[in-house]
Amino acid sequence: MLKTVDVALTVIQMFTKDEPEWSGSELAHKMNLDHAKIYRILETFESRNFLQKDPTTKKYSLGFAAWELGMAVYDRLNVKEFIQPILEELFQQTEESVFLTLLDKDEAVTFEAIEPDNKVKFSVTVGSRAPLYVGASYRSILAFMSEEFINSYLTKSELKQYTEKTMTNPEEIKRDLNKIRQQGWAVSEGEYTPDIIAIAVPVFDQHHKIIGSLTISGPIYRMTEEKRSEFISLLEEAQVKLADVIYKFPLKIRA
C-alpha cells in the first residue's frame, strides 16, 4: 500500500455529511499528523478542485471535482429519483424549459434540464457553463454570494455583451442583485439568448448557503405577465421541495 496515497484518501474521507468542514490544524490534531504534511495534502486537493477553502473561516470542504466523481454513482444513489420528479412536475405545470443550475466557484453549471418537444424553446445542455452576471438563472446565484465576492467578481471578470440587453455595467448589476435579494426571485429578458425570458429562484443548502438556482424559461411571446406571476409561485413551491431533497442529500457545492 502506498502510504502517502492512503493518508491523502483518509483526509478526503474526513469530509462527511456530519463534519463537512475542517481546518488544517483540526485535521492534523484529529489524525495525529504533521501540520506541514496535512497542509500539503489540502493544498494539492484544493488545486485540483477536490477541496475548496472558505476565504473567511479558512476551512476546507469538498469541491466540484469530488462531486463530479460522485456523479459516477449518482444513479445508483437514486438522488436523481428525488430531484427529477420536482423538475418534471414543474415542467408539466408550465410546459416551458425547466433547469437546475449549480454553482462551481465563479461559474454556473447546468445540472438537470427538461425541455418541451416540438416547440420554440430555450435550449440548455446539461454540463454547460455560464458566467454568474448574465440573466436571471445566474444572477439569482450571484445575488446571494458575499459582498466581497460580488465586488471582486464584477471587478475582475470580463463582462461580455452577449446580446444588446445584456447587463454589463457593474452598478446596474448590483442594483438588480439587491432587487433579487429583496424579492427572492429573478427575471431577465433576452440577456443571454435573444427573445427568451428566464425566471429563477435561488437554491440553498442545508446551511442556507447558495448552491444554485431553479429556472423556467421560454420565448417572450408565451411568457405573459400573468404567466410570469404564476411561474414565480410554482418556482417557489418547487424551491421548498428541492430544499427537502438537498437536506437529505446535501450538495456541498459553492464558491
Automatic annotation (TrEMBL):
Domain HTH iclR-type: 2-64
Record-level GO BP terms: negative regulation of DNA-templated transcription
Organism superkingdom: Bacteria
InterPro entries assigned: GAF-like_dom_sf, HTH_MetabolicPath_Reg, Tscrpt_reg_IclR_C, Tscrpt_reg_IclR_N, WH-like_DNA-bd_sf, WH_DNA-bd_sf
UniProt GO MF annotations: DNA binding; DNA-binding transcription factor activity
SMART domains on file: HTH_ICLR
Domain IclR-ED: 65-248
Keywords attached to this entry: DNA-binding, Transcription, Transcription regulation
PROSITE patterns named among the record's database cross-references: HTH_ICLR, ICLR_ED
Protein name in UniProt: IclR family transcriptional regulator
